[in-house]
Design brief:
It is built from 16 helices and eleven strands. By secondary structure, it is α/β, with parallel strands linked by helices. The longest helix has 19 residues, at 367-385. The protein binds magnesium ion (MG).
Length: 387
């Protein structure tokens, strides 16, 4: 990335991370320029964002929504592209330096894959990319000379803290978890959790899927798997600690026992900006810690009896192969079923475990095979629910 201005494509620009990315771009007009914005169904928001940032391309990936939408407000200089082909075309364009992968769920994998294949810098917020296809993505990035920079706050923290020592001297990584809104709930209380309660996260404002994942702690399970592939760790080198204030974003421990952490108030703009300006650090519009006020931060080990997703996360990080894609798809389908009122909150993780244990494990699947397993796991969830 030798140009002084970095040209970005933001995949999933109308979502929570996409909107925060645009705020970062707005605050750094001399460093960052938006060349492309993509949305799935939120076409009107896409038009509004295009009017604000005047990108070269706007991509609507959902064809039926694109056909229904009114594109008359799109700026003259912005070309509309529809479908996944359009997304691939933009991501691989030679003028693009950085692809921000901010699409939620397995839908984000293909955009990230094309970015890696085109040798781009991939600013990765979509954890499912590495959960589903970690070994394939990392190998392809190495082959094509792509750089992957994490946007997930915990992984950004690990990435930053790792710079304090040599990789060979790393003992372990400690991922912090807010514990979600039900951190203190008993097993019985967890059984009664409603959709409204699950969607009300205490510290982070996020989309519905990741908010439910945070409440079940499946989000942390997925992050264990993400960290395993991104940093090339053994599953046993990854520990989770509950930290309700979400100020310490993660820690790394070196061989000598020194622990290095990254701290900041919870605001995604900071990890986003770090990925977009790396290796430079510049002023950021996010809040700063106030050292003139007394503060205390809690850290405690998670209760895997009440939050069994964590055990599952370590198991899948250990086994690799098809497990990540199966767990991820099963979880997406189970969360959907919970949000639709078809299963209880405490059914989500057992449903995922049942589907995972029922699948015929393959240690080195192809990308196409992972999609087959993804579809299979979603059907299995439907069977498990009994509808
Ligand atoms: Mg995270």
């Amino acid at each position: 990335m030798s140009r002084s201005i970095r040209n970005l494509v933001i995949l999933g620009s109308t979502g929570s991370i996409g909107c925060s990315t645009l705020e970062v771009v707005r605050s750094l007009p001399h460093r960052l320029k938006v060349l492309g914005l993509s949305a799935h169904q939120s076409c009107q928001e896409l038009v509004a964002q295009a009017c604000g940032f005047l990108p070269r391309w706007a991509i609507a990936t959902d064809r039926p929504s694109a056909q229904r939408a009114d594109w008359s407000g799109l700026p003259d200089q912005t070309r509309l592209l529809v479908g996944m082909d359009g997304l691939q075309q933009v991501v691989s364009h030679p003028d693009v330096d950085v692809v921000v992968a901010a699409i939620v769920g397995s839908a984000g994998l293909m955009g990230a894959w094309h970015a890696v294949q085109s040798g781009k810098t991939l600013a990765l917020a979509n954890k499912e990319t590495l959960v589903m296809a970690g070994p394939l993505i990392m190998a392809e990035a190495a082959r094509c000379g792509a750089t992957i920079l994490p946007i997930d706050s915990e992984h950004s923290a690990v990435f930053q803290a790792l710079q304090a020592g040599r990789r060979a001297d790393l003992r372990r990584v400690v991922l912090t978890a807010s514990g979600g809104p039900f951190r203190e709930f008993s097993r019985q209380q967890l059984d009664q959790v409603t959709v409204e309660q699950a969607l009300n996260h205490p510290t982070w404002q996020m989309g519905p899927k990741i908010t439910v994942d945070s409440a079940t702690m499946m989000n942390k399970a997925l992050e264990i798997i993400e960290a395993r592939w991104l940093f090339g760790l053994d599953a046993d080198q990854i520990t989770v600690v509950v930290h309700p204030q979400s100020v310490i974003h993660s820690l790394v421990e070196f061989k000598d026992g020194s622990v290095i952490a990254q701290l900041s108030p919870p605001d995604m703009k900071l990890p986003i900006q770090y990925a977009l300006t790396y290796p430079e650090r510049v002023d950021c519009p996010s809040d700063k810690l106030d050292w003139t006020k007394a503060s205390s931060w809690d850290l405690c080990p998670p209760d895997e009896q009440r939050f069994p997703a964590l055990t599952l996360g370590h198991e899948v990080a250990r086994s690799g192969g098809t497990s990540g894609a199966v767990l991820n798809a099963a979880n997406e389908a189970a969360v959907e079923a919970f949000l639709a009122g078809r299963i209880r909150f405490t059914d989500i993780v057992p449903a995922c475990r049942a589907v995972l244990e029922h699948h015929h494990f393959d240690p080195s699947p192809s990308l196409d095979e992972l999609w087959t397993w993804d579809a299979w796991a979603r059907r299995e969830i439907t069977t498990w629910i009994g509808i």
